[in-house]
Each structure stands twice: as structure tokens, then as C-alpha cells.
């Protein structure tokens, strides 16, 4: 299956992408991973992207699209893929449509992870990270430390990252609503959108997504 995963920040896209890709036996293609791989390997696209980033500019859509096309053309993606973080806007969605049409294939589904805005804020703004080890992550509501402000694992100080502040989260949500959410209507017009609730345990959301995708494929 060829799937695009979309949803607001805090919807759990990265976690669900990993589980779904494993269940569907297709590669998980993340734009973040693509950028890191191309830049670290010094590919022509990586060097081009880095030149924009070093200058403090946004990487143009055409560079992002070229990276995604190159990755989708690799042998392990011949029978499908799961795109996470791409497309980010309608322009990229249209470019993806054209690229796939050129290859004689098309998307099977666009999986929309739906989460209420207040829940997104609660999920992200409630995170607390250990200053000694950023892999030690707690949550004031869902996984609180035994002692407030202290890491259970090493005793380090827990703090809220700037990116996790409520103000920053709401700004990120506004960017999502303005730039990325319109792709849902773009794909809904093609009959591709499958919307599920991303509330609940990770395994419950995965099962819900797999069932929805199977229903879509059988329709």
C-alpha cells in the first residue's frame, strides 16, 4: 500500500508510522530522516538542502520533493511506502500526485489522525525531559515522575523544553491548520482520506488504523 500519514503535532504520527509500516511491510519514509541521511552522506540534494539551511532559509519544495521521489524509487518501496511529514502543503501534494502518475502508480489512502486541539496541547506541554539524558521523558499527567521535577532513572532535573511550551504548541498548530491541513481536502476530493481517532493507547490506535485501511482497500 502507498499511504500518506497526516495529523497535527502531538498526534503520534512518528510512533504510528513505525508500527503501521511494520504491519504493512512497507518502508517508513520520514522527511526528517531523508534530510538527515542526504546531508550526512553528502549527496547532491543533501548539499543543496544544507546550503539553504546554513543561510537560514527554508528548503524549497522542489528539493524536498526530489528527495522523496528518489527514496520512493528505491527497491524496498516498489510495493508501497508510508510517507510521514510529506507532503506538508498542497503544492507538495500536487507534485507528489504528478510524480506518482509519471511512474504509473497512485496513493491507496491518506490516513488522517484526528486529535482534539486541547489534547494536543496537553500531550506536548505536559512533557518533561531530563537534563542529564534527553531519552528520559516523563509527562505531568500520563507518566509523572515519583518526585515532581526529578528524573526517576538518574535523579536529574526535569524541565520543559522551549518547543513544548503551550504558546509554541499553539503556534505550531496554527501553522498546521494553515499549511498542512488543506491537503486533507485535496485528497478528500480524490476519495483517499481515511480519518480515525488518535486517542487511546498506541496499540489501540494502530489496530484502529489497520482496520480502517483494510476497509478502505476492500471498498
From TrEMBL:
UniProt keywords, alphabetically: Kinase, Transferase
Which top EC class is given?
transferase
Keyword Transferase belongs to the record = yes
What does the record give as the organism's lineage?
Bacteria, Bacillati, Actinomycetota, Actinomycetes, Kitasatosporales
* Protein name as it appears in the record: Adenylate kinase
User: Per its UniProt entry, which superkingdom is the organism in?
Assistant: Bacteria
EC number of the protein: 2.7.4.3
Amino acid at each position: 500500500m502507498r499511504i500518506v500519514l497526516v495529523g497535527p503535532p502531538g498526534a503520534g504520527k512518528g510512533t504510528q508510522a513505525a508500527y503501521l509500516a511494520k504491519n504493512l511491510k512497507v518502508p517508513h519514509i520520514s522527511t526528517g530522516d531523508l534530510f538527515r541521511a542526504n546531508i550526512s552522506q553528502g549527496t547532491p540534494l543533501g548539499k543543496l538542502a544544507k546550503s539553504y539551511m546554513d543561510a537560514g532559509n527554508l528548503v524549497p519544495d522542489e528539493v524536498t520533493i526530489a528527495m522523496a521521489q528518489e527514496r520512493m524509487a528505491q527497491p524496498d518501496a516498489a510495493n508501497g511506502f508510508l510517507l510521514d511529514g510529506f507532503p506538508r502543503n498542497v503544492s507538495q501534494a500536487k507534485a507528489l500526485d504528478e510524480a506518482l502518475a509519471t511512474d504509473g502508480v497512485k496513493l491507496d489512502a491518506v490516513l488522517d489522525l484526528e486529535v482534539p486541539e486541547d489534547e494536543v496541547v496537553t500531550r506536548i506541554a505536559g512533557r518533561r525531559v531530563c537534563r542529564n539524558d534527553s531519552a528520559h521523558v516523563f509527562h505531568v499527567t500520563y507518566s509523572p515522575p515519583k518526585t515532581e521535577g526529578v528524573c526517576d532513572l538518574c535523579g536529574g532535573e526535569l524541565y520543559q523544553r522551549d518547543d513544548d511550551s503551550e504558546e509554541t504548541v499553539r503556534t505550531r498548530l496554527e501553522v498546521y491548520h494553515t499549511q498542512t491541513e488543506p491537503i486533507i481536502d485535496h485528497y478528500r476530493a480524490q476519495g483517499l482520506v481515511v480519518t480515525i481517532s488518535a486517542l487511546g493507547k498506541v496499540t489501540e490506535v494502530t489496530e484502529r488504523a489497520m482496520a480502517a485501511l483494510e476497509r478502505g482497500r476492500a471498498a
